[in-house]
Write a structure and sequence with these properties.
- By secondary structure, the protein is α/β, with parallel strands linked by helices.
- Helix content is 44%, strand content 16%.
- A seven-stranded parallel β-sheet has the order 3-2-1-4-5-6-10, sandwiched between helices. It has a three-stranded mixed β-sheet with strand order 7-9-11.
- Helix 2 runs parallel beside helix 4, helix 4 packs parallel to helix 6 and helix 9 packs across helix 11.
């Protein structure tokens, strides 16, 4: 197949591209705007492969994306391009509306017009796979239940609201136009090549540098953690074996409190990086509680039984094994970390966490 992947220079997108190029014979076109979180170094292992191609393009550029469809002739679209950081959406929602809602609309329209003009045999094989988040479901505070594919949407932040809107658009293009779509909603991802604004990579990198480890509020917020390479396998499985019109929740049943995640990282670092920055006796001493963010959801937890029963997917990594692999990767790849820490990123972190 020719697979068009939007946002392929991002954390999940790059993991997906590495998996497809290394484990299948498909051709991949990575369409990415290369915002602050997009990093082509994450694709260094596949960049020389003749089945991998890259286009520096914004999904909101209608003419450019249309030309890419005409030239590449995709058999499938996997749509990951999105602004994803909740904190950034709180302080600047406009870009989230533009990319996540307007961008998805543009991509749906281009895909629809392209699909309608395909030969019947190719029309029946075409897929539009929209990759979303469990945050569209809102909060599971004061309950032991889980998010299922039928859980009502109740987004809490500008980010999750923009992703919820994009999910609704995708379903509407199926219902109204018949565009063959599939949706997935995943839990929190972690693993190698993760941009260091999110909890796990930020904690690892700050600890190794002897900097404070910021924890929102009391750190009691609970998330279900999914190793990114397990997620990549699941996404490819859904694309190739999932049913049109269906949505699949992807999670690992690894619920952890944020404070426990930070403390586990500190414990792993004690073993893997025992030589600490000057003046630091224990990594856990760097833990610093900061003011909680507005509208912070207390608990997310996914019921991933549907994808297990219907498609046979289960995660290979448990949280301890995946977290140890992740910490090891950051220790062994300081050059990647140094290169991605741009001035814009550092300025934003200083403004957000040190104010």
């Amino acid at each position: 197949m020719n697979i068009l992947i939007t946002g392929g220079a991002g954390f999940i997108g790059s993991a997906l591209i590495r998996f497809i190029v290394q484990h299948t014979n498909h051709r991949v076109l990575n369409l990415d705007k290369l915002t602050y979180a997009g990093n082509l170094e994450s694709l260094s292992s596949v960049v020389a492969n003749p089945r991998y191609h890259f286009s520096h393009t914004d999904i909101t550029d209608y003419q450019a994306v249309t030309q890419i469809f005409n030239d590449f002739q995709p058999d499938a679209v996997m749509h990951l391009a999105a602004e994803t950081h909740v904190d950034r959406s709180i302080t600047g929602a406009a870009q989230f509306i533009q990319t996540n809602i307007v961008g998805t609309f543009q991509l749906l329209e281009i895909s629809r017009l392209y699909w309608e003009n395909l030969e019947k045999s190719k029309q029946s094989l075409f897929r539009f796979h929209h990759i979303s988040t469990d945050e569209v479901f809102g909060d599971l505070v004061n309950t032991d239940s889980y998010f299922t594919e039928s859980t009502p949407y109740a987004p809490s932040s500008p980010y999750s609201a923009s992703k919820a809107a994009s999910d609704h658009l995708v379903r509407a293009w199926l219902r109204t136009y018949g565009l063959p779509v599939i949706l997935t909603n995943c839990s929190n991802n972690y693993g190698p090549y993760h941009f260091p604004e999110k909890l796990i990579p930020l904690t690892i990198i700050n600890a190794l540098a002897g900097k404070p480890l910021p924890v929102y509020g009391n750190g009691e917020q609970i998330r279900d953690w999914l190793y990114v390479e397990d997620h990549a396998r699941a996404l490819y499985l859904v694309l190739t074996q999932g049913k049109i019109g269906e949505s699949y929740n992807i999670g690992a049943h690894n619920e952890q409190r944020n404070i426990d995640v930070v403390q586990k990282i500190c414990s792993i670092l004690e073993q893997l990086a025992p030589v600490k920055p000057q003046g630091i006796s224990h990594y856990k001493n760097l833990i610093t509680y900061v003011k909680d963010r507005p509208g912070h959801d207390v608990r997310y937890a996914i019921d991933a039984s549907k994808i297990k029963m219907e498609l046979g997917w289960t995660p290979k990594e448990n949280f301890d094994s995946g977290l140890t692999k992740t910490v090891s990767w950051y220790i062994e790849n300081p050059e990647w970390v140094e290169n991605i820490q741009s001035g814009e990123y550092l300025n934003w972190i200083n403004k957000h966490y040190n104010s």
